[in-house]
Q: What sequence folds into this?
């Protein structure tokens, strides 16, 4: 006989994240202390294709989800019997990849009779700010800049947010990755471009970023500008100027993010500004917004600690309803 839902409601939360190419599991207490945070990145697997191949990602998640969960439990020193809830990313992301995590979470919640909490991946990124040792409390304006999204959010309470602005085309992380590919840095190239840019002159090339109305962003023209700049150089010259191209390109992305984030803060009148998502790891962005709170480096790119963190502020879905839940691909 299975036990009723949420028998151990006060117990730690087991988080699972498989929305893209990281298989991740974490154990987080109700107070937001991270007991374990395990991330298995598939980046190398997808590098040769120049981007994530959804079917390849799903198959790898299937192989990794069980060992990654076991590692997280072992590292946390918490027995599966003492887990109080299972939190899992329901979307947005790659459908096949999300389904692996969702199915694993359903199985654990059903077999162990623990609470089941579906989490929105973007809410998860924001919730990376709510973890110990220095949890941030709303209200604040949040810049969420990742591989698939670039959003400005008004966060008034930990359970949600209002969207103030978004990208009209490419996400900031996507702009980093596409730029990195044009510079021959492989996938995902954001962090590599960041490192290369440190050796270059950010004023060497002029890469303007489109100003669009409101608090929205647009990065697709920038990528084209880099493409033309690269085409204009012969191989030797390109090699010589690669660092300058990286620095100038990064400067343009960072400038756009910084300007809009400051505008959003002014418009809302909120005192605090926070930055989350993979691009929050960027060294120039971190240096350019000294007034902002940044997610800890290890929690910027996808992880399950942020998913478990978000679950602390979401309602559980009771048995048997949670068994019928499906994933979703995009922001509704
Ligand atoms: N130091 C860095 N500088 C710039 N970009 C970076 C850096 N480190 C990581 N990134 C970028 O962050 C992105 C990955 O972030 P994240 O894991 O949050 O995105 P995602 O989960 O793929 O997308 P989403 O969260 O929108 O679904 C990639 O585009 C990567 O290039
Ligand atoms: Mg993400």
A:
């Amino acid at each position: 006989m299975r036990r009723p839902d949420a028998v151990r409601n006060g117990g730690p939360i087991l988080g699972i994240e498989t929305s893209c190419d990281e298989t991740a599991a974490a154990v987080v207490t109700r107070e937001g202390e991270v007991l374990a945070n395990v991330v298995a990145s598939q980046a190398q697997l997808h590098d040769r294709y120049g981007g994530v191949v959804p079917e390849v990602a799903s198959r790898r998640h299937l192989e990794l989800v069980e060992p990654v969960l076991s590692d997280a439990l072992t590292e946390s020193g918490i027995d599966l019997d003492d887990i109080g809830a299972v939190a899992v990313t329901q979307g947005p992301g790659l459908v096949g990849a999300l389904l692996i995590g969702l199915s694993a979470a359903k199985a654990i919640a059903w077999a162990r009779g623990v609470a089941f909490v579906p989490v929105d991946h973007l809410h998860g990124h924001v919730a990376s700010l709510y973890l110990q040792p220095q949890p941030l409390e709303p209200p604040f304006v949040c810049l969420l800049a990742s591989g698939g999204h670039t959003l400005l959010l008004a966060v008034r309470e930990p359970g949600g947010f209002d969207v103030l602005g978004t990208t009209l085309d490419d996400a900031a992380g996507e702009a980093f990755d596409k730029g990195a590919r044009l510079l021959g840095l492989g996938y995902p190239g954001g962090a590599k471009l960041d490192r290369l840019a440190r050796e270059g002159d950010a004023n060497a090339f002029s890469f303007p970023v489109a100003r669009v109305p409101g608090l929205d962003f647009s990065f697709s023209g920038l990528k084209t500008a880099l493409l033309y700049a690269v085409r204009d150089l012969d191989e030797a010259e390109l090699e010589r100027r690669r660092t300058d191209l990286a620095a100038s390109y990064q400067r343009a992305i960072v400038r756009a993010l910084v300007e809009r984030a400051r505008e959003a803060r002014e418009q809302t009148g909120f005192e605090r500004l926070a930055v989350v998502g993979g691009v929050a790891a960027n060294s120039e962005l971190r240096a350019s917004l000294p007034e902002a709170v940044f997610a800890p480096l290890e929690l910027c790119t996808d992880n399950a600690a942020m998913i478990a963190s978000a679950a602390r502020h979401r309602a559980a879905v009771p048995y048997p309803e949670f068994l019928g839940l499906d994933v979703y691909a995009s922001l509704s």
Observations:
- The radius of gyration is 20 Å.
- Residues 84 and 222 are 47 Å apart (CA to CA).
- The chain has ten helices and ten strands.
- The longest strand covers residues 34-41.
